[in-house]
Design brief:
Helix content is 47%, strand content 11%. It is of the alpha/beta class and 193 residues long. α1 packs across α6 and α4 crosses α5.
Length: 193
């Protein structure tokens, strides 16, 4: 089967790509992630995908449009789960529309992450498949996550520390003291620790 794989990032691509190839599928990738914030983070992730492409012969289309305005307009919701669902839908719908041209099915590297709402990704993928008429190829690749991350580390690929949007960045760092001023009047009483 000819599969278009939505790529959220280079490290999450490694294991699903190998698994799909092992199943005998012809795989192409598509990087479309209007959720990634800030802009320099967006560039880092595109760069990592390009570096990955240099070492692995996979054709990948990269949407370099920084889609923050569209993402915020379409995905904002005060409820986290609703935001994530809208974000998944934006990315998977665009992937399915692209797949409709010349692919038998589409899938997503989001299915490898233990940090994503796996069942919600699956439900959105299936809904988008019905809306677009393109088969959603579901796989649970979470058991392969650590293997892919280890390989990404070995290849020195950029590995991000949050999903991508401004809310996920805030959730990742809100309880840390990283980048806080620690001098007089700082968060720990000015001890400079």
């Amino acid at each position: 089967m000819n599969v278009l794989l939505h790529i959220c990032c280079a490290p999450c691509t490694i294991a699903p790509l190998k698994a799909l190839r092992d199943e005998g599928h012809a795989v192409s990738g598509f990087f479309h992630n209007p959720n990634i914030h800030p802009f320099l983070e967006f560039r880092k992730r595109i760069k990592a995908v390009r570096v990955f492409m240099e070492t692995d012969a996979v054709p990948v289309g990269i949407d370099e449009t920084y889609g923050l305005d569209d993402f915020v307009r379409e995905a904002y919701d005060p409820v986290r789960a609703a935001r994530c669902e809208k974000c998944y839908a934006m990315r998977l719908r665009r992937t399915a529309e692209r797949a409709r041209r010349r692919f038998d099915a589409f899938s997503t590297t989001l299915l490898v992450s233990k940090h994503q709402d796996h069942e919600r990704v699956r439900a959105v993928g299936e809904r988008v498949a019905q809306e677009t008429g393109v088969r959603f190829l579901y796989r649970d690749w979470r058991e392969l996550a650590e293997e892919g991350q280890a390989e990404a580390k070995g290849r020195s690929l950029y590995r991000q520390s949050y999903c991508g949007c401004c809310w996920s960045e805030w959730e990742r760092y809100r309880d840390t003291t990283r980048e806080l001023y620690r001098g007089p009047g700082g968060p720990r009483g000015g001890k400079g620790d």
